[in-house]
Amino acid sequence: MNPLSSNPQATPNRSPALTEPAGAAPYTITDREATRQAREQQVGQRPGTLNIRPGALKPRLFLMSYDDSTFTEQEYTDRYDELLDELRQHPELKHWIDVRGYGDLPLIEQMMQDFGLHPLQMEDVLNDYQRAKIDVFDDNRLFMVSRMTDFTRDLEIDDDQLSIFTGPNYVLTFQDDYDDCLDSLRTRIRSNFSTLRRHPVLYLAYALTDVVLDHYYPTMAAIGDYIEDLEEAIFADKRPRRLLNRILRIKKDVVRFRRLVYPERDKIAEILRLPEEIMPETLKIFYRDAYDHAIQALDLAESYRDNISSLTDLYLSDQGNRMNEVMKVLTIISTIFIPLSFVVGLYGMNFQHVDEHGHLLPRNMPELYSPWGYPMVLFAMGMVVATQLFYFYRKGWLTNR
Amino acid sequence: MNPLSSNPQATPNRSPALTEPAGAAPYTITDREATRQAREQQVGQRPGTLNIRPGALKPRLFLMSYDDSTFTEQEYTDRYDELLDELRQHPELKHWIDVRGYGDLPLIEQMMQDFGLHPLQMEDVLNDYQRAKIDVFDDNRLFMVSRMTDFTRDLEIDDDQLSIFTGPNYVLTFQDDYDDCLDSLRTRIRSNFSTLRRHPVLYLAYALTDVVLDHYYPTMAAIGDYIEDLEEAIFADKRPRRLLNRILRIKKDVVRFRRLVYPERDKIAEILRLPEEIMPETLKIFYRDAYDHAIQALDLAESYRDNISSLTDLYLSDQGNRMNEVMKVLTIISTIFIPLSFVVGLYGMNFQHVDEHGHLLPRNMPELYSPWGYPMVLFAMGMVVATQLFYFYRKGWLTNR
Amino acid sequence: MNPLSSNPQATPNRSPALTEPAGAAPYTITDREATRQAREQQVGQRPGTLNIRPGALKPRLFLMSYDDSTFTEQEYTDRYDELLDELRQHPELKHWIDVRGYGDLPLIEQMMQDFGLHPLQMEDVLNDYQRAKIDVFDDNRLFMVSRMTDFTRDLEIDDDQLSIFTGPNYVLTFQDDYDDCLDSLRTRIRSNFSTLRRHPVLYLAYALTDVVLDHYYPTMAAIGDYIEDLEEAIFADKRPRRLLNRILRIKKDVVRFRRLVYPERDKIAEILRLPEEIMPETLKIFYRDAYDHAIQALDLAESYRDNISSLTDLYLSDQGNRMNEVMKVLTIISTIFIPLSFVVGLYGMNFQHVDEHGHLLPRNMPELYSPWGYPMVLFAMGMVVATQLFYFYRKGWLTNR
Amino acid sequence: MNPLSSNPQATPNRSPALTEPAGAAPYTITDREATRQAREQQVGQRPGTLNIRPGALKPRLFLMSYDDSTFTEQEYTDRYDELLDELRQHPELKHWIDVRGYGDLPLIEQMMQDFGLHPLQMEDVLNDYQRAKIDVFDDNRLFMVSRMTDFTRDLEIDDDQLSIFTGPNYVLTFQDDYDDCLDSLRTRIRSNFSTLRRHPVLYLAYALTDVVLDHYYPTMAAIGDYIEDLEEAIFADKRPRRLLNRILRIKKDVVRFRRLVYPERDKIAEILRLPEEIMPETLKIFYRDAYDHAIQALDLAESYRDNISSLTDLYLSDQGNRMNEVMKVLTIISTIFIPLSFVVGLYGMNFQHVDEHGHLLPRNMPELYSPWGYPMVLFAMGMVVATQLFYFYRKGWLTNR
Amino acid sequence: MNPLSSNPQATPNRSPALTEPAGAAPYTITDREATRQAREQQVGQRPGTLNIRPGALKPRLFLMSYDDSTFTEQEYTDRYDELLDELRQHPELKHWIDVRGYGDLPLIEQMMQDFGLHPLQMEDVLNDYQRAKIDVFDDNRLFMVSRMTDFTRDLEIDDDQLSIFTGPNYVLTFQDDYDDCLDSLRTRIRSNFSTLRRHPVLYLAYALTDVVLDHYYPTMAAIGDYIEDLEEAIFADKRPRRLLNRILRIKKDVVRFRRLVYPERDKIAEILRLPEEIMPETLKIFYRDAYDHAIQALDLAESYRDNISSLTDLYLSDQGNRMNEVMKVLTIISTIFIPLSFVVGLYGMNFQHVDEHGHLLPRNMPELYSPWGYPMVLFAMGMVVATQLFYFYRKGWLTNR
């Protein structure tokens, strides 16, 4: 009953029947509460129970069949049986069955049975938040997960899951969305001159992994540019609002990106350790190259983390500098005027030069009666100000830091 | 004397008799001093000495017996002998003996003897703060500890211990509380269509581990939501009191959660390394799935830790910003009014225009006698204020940062 | 000449003679300078040179001899020869030779020779600051070091060294002090019903390790309580003086505790890796339990470290908050009164309404001559204050944050 | 067709033909947008597709041929065929083919074919940002990447890639630039007495690696000097603008340097693990020395990182100190003058000594009518100032910190 | 030609001739620029090229020859040939050839040839900044590097290199300086009763390593004392200038010390892994002891690092506290006097009680004409001050924190 599995006996311990329907009809609520309810519903379910995420898209099926000289490509949405027929009729070709969207449980279950997929792995496919990994079936078929990233306008890393099953002459991929980052690969397959068509079908699985990995670079580049913009914004006269908030948000992205790439690297390392009969040396040389790329992406992510941490330091130090500047303005103004105010207050006192009986009190503020009193006071105050300004100048308070 | 142990000779080096009663009668004091006294009492005791925690609940016993086609379920509280009889009469069935509450030392000791449990492991059961672990008996029976978490209303992670002993045809679990998170599993066993009933009894031990692991997700989700709430609270106009305190408390939870899950992951990794005769490959495929889940929970916990550390940064920076704002208000007010106050003080001085002998002193404050003196001073002060406001505006101090 | 060593040829490469006396007569100076002098004296000495720490206590010798049915216990201080006789006369019993105090070099050297102890290890014993470790002699005898902790009133972790040598039918322990934490173990040995007396003598070495490990918990509990007290003190209205100092001191303790327990854990892990002929599996099951305890103690220490780091954050943030509060009081007072002071200063100016020639100057401060001038100024100032208070209230500055 | 590859069958799985031209004609745009476009163009391309970086230099070809006694050196730019002839005519000599600049795709492809280079590795060569690494071909030839560093005037680490291919009697190097740091090595080869000419050709590959490693030290020294300059600048009276910015920039450099050296160390470690037939022990002794140098460079980089982190602490603390000083000036001035201003304000009050009806009001400010009123007030204010100055002096506020 | 090398064929691949003189005549410039020039000169040189550091001392040669019963000791400076004769004449004795100072290249090269030393290792000797390490020659001779530390008065760790070559019956040491820390070892050798003289010559190499290791403790102790002094200084009323600078400087020392000890530990660990024929078990027991010491030194260094990090926290918190205190003084003074100044300003206003036409304006400041006006205002102001003082007292601002 597993017409496409090379060896139907290879997975005897897997429960092929899925008699308990998951029950959750597809619906579309996206708010936090609904998501949590859905999550809690799954708690305690039998492992391997398939849950279609609320709001999942209706699956579209595509098939590319090729060898060195021939190539056909067609969409089989709603025509799964024809797709199967096509596969059965052309065992000599290599096939890429490309499923986009999960929103049809009976179809998914039918494919599980036909292709001999394990419910636990199918659960990983549908969960859609599985880290990159590789599982080896006991008949040497592979199950690989890659995460495709996209950096959206509002500074979020958007990551979708690409699940890859390999078979003797086919590669079967599942993804959540209709759009993906694999078009450049499709173009290469369509080309008659592509070396890809001459390699065994396992090379297609590699090519998928590699294209996903290649797409990490534009994401990283966008993050890198944004970090540079933030760095300039820190020293701008008018800092944007909630700048630190943005810095920490991009940091979150970088941290998340690292979490995405680490398992990817580990996955490739595991592939490199696979025995020759599962992964031939002629393919490993390509994975070794992909491994270098993953390392480099991690390296870059580490650099970004360092940069962001320096940014945070800069931000806080600049905040301190601005406070310092405010304090200096306050201090200069206060220090200049407070003594002057004392002086003018002093000569505002009402000590009488003549008491109530008309006697002269010559010691009470004779300055007020001096003909040069006012000009001299003004001059004295000017001297005080000049002294203070000189002191501040020497302290470097008058220059801009 | 070990009717349910497959091989009574398998544990010859374990001291079966527990002649020294632990002495501590069950009582209910929960304050710190009492707990410490209890703790100190245990210091220096013989390893394997059983201590019933003060306030432990009276044990309730439940039995579920099942195979593909039959299923019985009954409570045997206070009827331990009948439970034993039931087990002996149905060696062909799979049994789950479910003990809730530890408050009856003689019963516990009787069970230890009947099921051939080691005192050291029984001590781990009763201690109730053993990290997740797995021990393998020399007759291939297993002792596993899982920690069931709950996130309470007052932001505490509440964790209870689930101790699992496996035998040839039974699983024996101990827990402290009457309530637990295993009801979804019980429902699955009761269902006639459950694949669980067709698997060997070791699968039940797996299913228990898996259900506990599944319950980590709602806990994590609640923590995640709370962290988001805190993030919003930081920028609120009126920050809640002791906000940092709350941030650090949730951090404590996350750290504690990580400490719970790490041993869980290690336990599962150890299970995956068990030889085929103890843990067959058909079960390991399920544990591999559980391993992925544990890794994912750890990943999430790491993200939360990063988020909280960013929150702390944000909080402190915002605190600095608020201080900055206070300083700016002070500086603006002072800087505007201090010079004005000097001016008005200046013209409050009492320099006399006429000395005591009636001579005019024309250099003493002639402004006071000018017909436009007052309006011009007012105008000059207005100019000063305008200049200052313009300066502050350019500095960006008047805008809300 | 090694009457108690099972195999005198086993340690041929150890230099048995200690002809160079260490020279340092026991004296009692505890200040820093003296300690340093002592330390420097040892620099460059032959490895294995025995140095009695200044102020070491005179050794007291105790012997416990037991098997399943018999038990004798006696102090042999100053009667080492009789102790040896006792050991020789009862080769069928298990013995615990318990030496407390190091202050008698000739006795120590005599014991080294009689029991075949290596000078390097004896140096470790006397140094008294050896980390927990295990050495295996080539005749399968063991040398183990444990560190006994105590948490003193003045927040110091006091740790003493317990050195354990095992022989074919004895355990020989050395410690610095007359008092220790082993009394609960002694009580257990004295009991006729103790399982300890039925186990081989190696079990006694385990029991000693386990008791020491058990005593870590009260130390940890005391530290945990103190940390909680500190947490409350941070938010107290009157913070105790040098609170941060105390926080950092307890942190030092926790860090030190971790440093004590890590080698303890490593030691037990090494014991678990010993081959069967040195450490039988029947004992390893107990060490596995001790290993769990050591891990748990480390776990706790890690939690404490996290807590203390959070405490430091809290302290500094609270310090910032207090500064903020001071600033706010200053700002409110200044902001309210500075404009008012300007206004009253304004009307304190002496612009004359009539010049020196008696001409009216109607533009000079006509307000002063208005019948409602004073009340209106008072009202205007009241309005200013009300506006400011409203502004501060909206900012949340009037509430207690 | 691979005249210089020792074993043409050794790389059967490499696609020798490069029929798809990379298309991107060399052009010269260096701004961010252009770089990103180029990067994005490569995403999804077939692995092993060669892309010439926009602006790449036209390749110059150099050949050094030598053995113990003979030596020839010539530039073969635009004469690649003659170079090949030279190589074929002198199989008994050792050759260094030195290619500088990548800007000629057909030539690069021709060399790939002639020397049997793998497209993936050639891609690494042209990418020019490959970390240091070593690949071993299946015919024991090596591909090594080193990174040559330079520390530019504007505090940037400039790093160029040196790609080294080894063959039976040649070493083939690629680099991006016409200038490099290898001139000292060239001089050594030219010398008739150089031991280098007596070693096998693999030693040349070592010597190249070693020279590159040697050049790390001047870079490190320049960074070290700059760090010292920064340390002095922190305490300078007039701190340079954006000092922290510079500190963090040099930190970026150090971090980047570490990232450069780590793979270098790993590469050498991998070389040391190569089997004898690929890397003879007589060469490994030199690599072991290079390994020590790499470790030492890493050590130095670690020290620098620590120093920079201390610098940041110093900077922030000094910033705090400066704020403190500003606050102290403000506080001293305010504290001295505010009470004085109160006093002079007090005696500026207009309480009347005589009411409007001419009655004496003797309680209203009699001081104003005392003959010694003014001198006594001055004296009192002097006392207040003296008291305050004494208080500040005792606090240590008047001294410079 | 290698009269003292046990097996002249053992090092065939080492280039014995050093025909290229290093050229750099010994001179004495110590400034940064000169050092850098010297460094840059070495870049790109042939590995194994010997460079005498500018300013190197003229070598002094010492020889100690001993066995159980005989002992001779002599200086052979400028008499290298006689030293060689002495060695050849007494092959039955153990010799320590002790070379201090490197400043004579021809002598060094002669020794290299006579003792069969490898140029790369000799380069390590002369470089004088090689980390601790061990190299094993192919004829089982050893090359070890230790670093001798000294803690100078001006808080610098001074470290010199001790390079040790072992041979069949000799140990050959090189060091830079005439003074060292090995005198205690020399005294031990001179003593007739020393066990050192009975051990094989390899034990001398161990003893050298051990003495160097022993000298780490006084260095650590000095650092520890200094850290304690710093801790007290933080809370002193008058903090010393640039205290943080000192803290960070001692931190640099500790970090450097760790970097010294880590390779030392690794070296000893590598020695412990050497096969029995190179390092007999009878010696390893001593190295195991040295390993414990190295671990303990590292442990201490880690503690110091923690302490210093706590010191930094304390310093910054105390800095914050001092700022707080300054702010509180400012706030108290301002808050008390600003309202008072307002009041006195209020009654300094010149609102007229009689207008210019002689009409009474009774609403204008009637208080000024009240007989109790002045006393009541004084009383009111006293009340305000009392209220404020009470408020501050309750806030805890008047107490010293």
Automatic annotation (TrEMBL), chains A, B, C, D, E:
Protein name, as recorded: Magnesium transport protein CorA
Region (Disordered): 1-27
Recorded superkingdom: Bacteria
Record localization: Cell membrane; Membrane
Alphabetical list of Gene3D superfamilies matching this protein: CorA soluble domain-like, Magnesium transport protein CorA, transmembrane region
Compositionally biased tracts (Polar residues): 1-16
SUPFAM superfamilies given in the database record: CorA soluble domain-like, Magnesium transport protein CorA, transmembrane region
Membrane topology, record value: Multi-pass membrane protein
Family annotation (Pfam families): CorA
Organism, as annotated: Hymenobacter segetis
Keywords on record: Cell membrane, Ion transport, Magnesium, Membrane, Transmembrane, Transmembrane helix, Transport
NCBIfam families reported for this sequence: corA
Family affiliation: Belongs to the CorA metal ion transporter (MIT) (TC 1.A.35) family.
Chief location of this protein within or outside the cell: membrane
Transmembrane segments: 329-352, 372-393
Function as written in the Swiss-Prot or TrEMBL entry: Mediates influx of magnesium ions.
